[in-house]
């Protein structure tokens, strides 16, 4: 998250200098082809393995990695210079996200522990991708499909 914020500031300075830039901001990305274990991928892997993931009681926005790739292509093709597009899918509380993972993995649901140490923010990080959907024609798959794709991929890597 810090690197995204830093990159956004750098790119916005380029926009102020007149560079032909379109900004694309994906939310918490997950799906097949995880290169390194992000907090979202770690939570999914924990549930697959029957372990309690480190989640907070708040919520986040999850988006599929392939939908993010498509959003980048659409932004290059159709985006307005200087505009910023959020690529966000479904806002979900952590307990519902954990239940989605459990369902996709076919494992029993575990309670979300409010006191568990977590690498996830304690705030609700809700986002809206209306601008990307309207101006770019971007769409995203349902959370259930995103989680299933991530579970299948991460399970194949165990």
Tell me what the structure shows.
It is a single chain. The protein is an alpha/beta fold and 158 residues long. The protein has one domain (2-157): 3-Layer(aba) Sandwich (Rossmann fold). The chain contains six helices and five strands, in the order αββαβαββααα. The chain has helices at 2-16, 39-48, 65-78, 94-105, 130-136, 143-157; strands at residues 23-26, 28-30, 59-64, 84-87, 90-93. The strands form two sheets. Strands 2-3-5 form a three-stranded mixed β-sheet. The chain is elongated and about 55 Å long.
Secondary structure layout plus pairing:
Blueprint: H1 2-16, E1 23-26, E2 28-30, H2 39-48, E3 59-64, H3 65-78, E4 84-87, E5 90-93, H4 94-105, H5 130-136, H6 143-157
Helix pairs in contact: 2-4, 2-6, 4-6
Provide the descriptors you would attach to this structure in a database record.
single chain, 158 residues, alpha/beta, Rossmann fold, two-stranded parallel ribbon, 6 helices, elongated
Provide a count of the helices. Answer: 6
Question: H/E series, N to C?
Answer: HEEHEHEEHHH
| Tally of separate domains | 1
Low-confidence stretches: none
Query: How would a crystallographer describe the biggest sheet?
Result: 3 strands, mixed
Distance between the termini: 26 Å
> Considering the protein shown, what is the CATH homologous superfamily?
NAD(P)-binding Rossmann-like Domain
Question: Strands of the biggest beta sheet: in what spatial order?
Answer: 2-3-5
Radius of gyration: 17 Å
Overall form: elongated
Q: How many E-type strands?
A: 5
Oligomer category = single chain
CATH topology: Rossmann fold
Kindly provide the name of the CATH class. Answer: Alpha Beta
Structural class: alpha/beta
- Helical content stands at 40-55%
Q: Mean pLDDT, nearest integer? A: 88
| Fraction in beta strands | 5-15%
CATH architecture: 3-Layer(aba) Sandwich
């Amino acid at each position: 998250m810090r690197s995204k914020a830093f990159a956004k500031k750098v790119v916005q300075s380029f926009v102020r200098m007149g560079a032909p830039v379109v900004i694309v901001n994906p939310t918490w990305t997950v799906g097949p082809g995880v290169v390194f274990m992000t907090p979202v991928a770690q939570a999914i892997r924990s549930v697959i393995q029957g372990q309690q993931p480190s989640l907070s009681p708040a919520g986040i926005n999850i988006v599929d990695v392939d939908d993010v790739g498509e959003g980048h292509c659409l932004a290059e093709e159709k985006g307005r210079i200087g505009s910023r597009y959020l690529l966000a899918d479904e806002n979900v509380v952590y307990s519902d996200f954990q239940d989605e993972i459990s369902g996709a993995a076919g494992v029993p649901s575990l309670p979300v522990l409010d006191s568990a140490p977590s690498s996830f923010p304690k705030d609700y990080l809700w986002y809206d991708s209306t601008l990307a959907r309207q101006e770019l024609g971007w769409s995203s798959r349902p959370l259930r499909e995103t989680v299933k794709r991530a579970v299948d991929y991460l399970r194949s890597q165990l």
